Amino acid sequence: QALTGKRSFSFKVDKSPANLALTDKLLATLDPSMPAELPLYSTNLRNAKLTIQQVAPSDWPAFYQAIQKLRQEHYDPKKPLQLPGKLLSKQTLTIKDQTDTLITTPIALGQWLKEGKFGHLLVLVEAGEATVKPTNNDSPLQPQLVWVQGTQLSLDAYSYPDKILAWGGDLLTAKPVSNLALSLHSSTSPTTQTQT
Questions:
Q1: Which helix (H) or strand (E) holds 156?
Q2: Other beta carbons less than 10 A from residue 105's beta carbon
């Protein structure tokens, strides 16, 4: 059947709901050749709440429990998330918002790292003021939590039924590192094992 004549159609498009995201990984390793920054991705947000915690590898089990609680339970913004480590900063992060546009905001971390590059941090980002009114179908935005490490070492490992083969290298040169001490940390308990 042939169509003839002109037809005009109108579509009503609503604004996108507010959105917030960091990396989808639990552990983010900073590039030692680049500024110590973590990108924050957002849509239709004017600001966000930023919390920085200083942590050590022994804090991993507590961090893992916080992640599990955040993912498995319904988020209640009235109940602050309990984080391990030492509080370094709690501030409001301003976002240069553009309506219905994905915005990348770099979170500068160098001031909390040794020599601006080395150390372990927890980065927690919670949604602030949205530029769009939420609908009844919109769920509260989940806080974004990630462990960030600044190091010059890379690590690869392969697990066997009775042992783990691991080797380390330099992130900048890709050369192997000899006499490297490695510690195994459980995700559920503070028990560690160290080998060289």
A1: strand 153-159
A2: 20
Tell me the C-alpha to C-alpha distance, in Å, between residue 72 and each of 43, 66, 153, 166, 167. 24, 10, 33, 32, 34
Residues in the chain: 196
Which helix (H) or strand (E) covers residue 60, if one does?
helix 60-72
- Structure-token pair, residue 189: 């308990």
CA distance 51 to 19: 18
**What DSSP character marks residue 117?**
T
Predicted TM-score (pTM) of this structure? 0.84
Average pLDDT, the chain: 87
* pLDDT at residue 60, as a whole number: 92
User: Which residue type occupies 129?
Assistant: E
Contact 39, 107 (CB under 8 A): yes
Share of the chain above pLDDT 70, in %: 92
Which residues on neighbouring strands pair with residue 126, listed in sequence order?
Answer: 49
Rounded to whole angstroms, how far apart are CA atoms 17 and 136?
A: 11
Task: Please spell the DSSP secondary structure of 85-102, one letter per residue.
Answer: SEEEEEEEEE----TT--
Structure tokens at 102: 């994905």
